[in-house]
Amino acid sequence: MMRVEVSFSYGERKALDGVDFSADKGRLLAVIGPNGSGKSTLLKCIAGILKPEGRIELDGEDITALSPRERAKLVSYVPQSSFPEFDFTVEEFVEMGTYFTGGSVERALKEVGMWEKKSESVLKLSGGEYQLVLIARALAQGGRVLLLDEPTSHLDVNHALEVMGLIKSLSRERIVVAVLHDLNLTLRYADDVLVLKNGKVIWFGPTEELTPDVLQRVYGIKFEFVRGNSGTAVVPSL
Ligand code: ADP
Ligand code: MG
């Protein structure tokens, strides 16, 4: 289990204000909230890229004091997806994830279903495939915690569902925290939801207890939850 209780400021600007939650293996945690609410800052604090005030405990151990190398063995981070710029093969690219930790490239690529494409250039991959390779690079690092920042933001709906299905299955074996911008994917895949606004926790709990009222408070517009055969859809209205 991971327990997080952090505050963070960029200079004078408070980006996280006493953000307090826990995450468990086997339960996919989604972080949602409007632009600028502090979602990416929160992941960067957990990943150790930013130095917050407060505590981050993994199975009772405070990990904030660990060296970057020790921290990298525990926590893997997939930044918000960019597009590949350099002509690495898939295998070379994923190998970068193992520099500090010596994990297995083969196992990571097999886990995301991209082992057959190991010799292809990352420049030739589709957006969905590149996202899988980014996840594989994080898996190769071998951490107990996997952090993902908007893993489906560049993907069309079928690839988004495929990547979310993979993330859901990865969450059985590790603690997974995913920033999601899509509320429908959140309702469909998340087990727990952390709702941020202006750097504060507005709501935290199991997905089935999230209500349209909470979303209205956060986004400032009305929502309706429509229950269908394949799940619940969020319908916004002005
Ligand atoms: P989100 O990911 O929810 O869109 P961010 O965590 O990126 O939000 O940003 C939270 C707040 O911190 C925003 O007000 C943003 O403008 C500010 N912020 C983010 N990065 C920086 C930075 N490098 N320097 C100063 N302010 C920043
Ligand atoms: Mg962000």
UniProtKB/TrEMBL annotation:
InterPro entries, per database record: AAA+_ATPase, ABC_transporter-like_ATP-bd, P-loop_NTPase
CDD domains in the cross-refs: ABC_Iron-Siderophores_B12_Hemin
Gene3D superfamilies, sorted: P-loop containing nucleotide triphosphate hydrolases (3.40.50.300)
Sequence ranges assigned to domain ABC transporter in this UniProt record: 1-223
UniProt KW keywords: ATP-binding, Nucleotide-binding, Transport
TM annotation in the entry: none
Gene Ontology MF terms: ATP binding; ATP hydrolysis activity
Protein name: Iron ABC transporter permease
Taxonomic source organism: Thermococcus gorgonarius
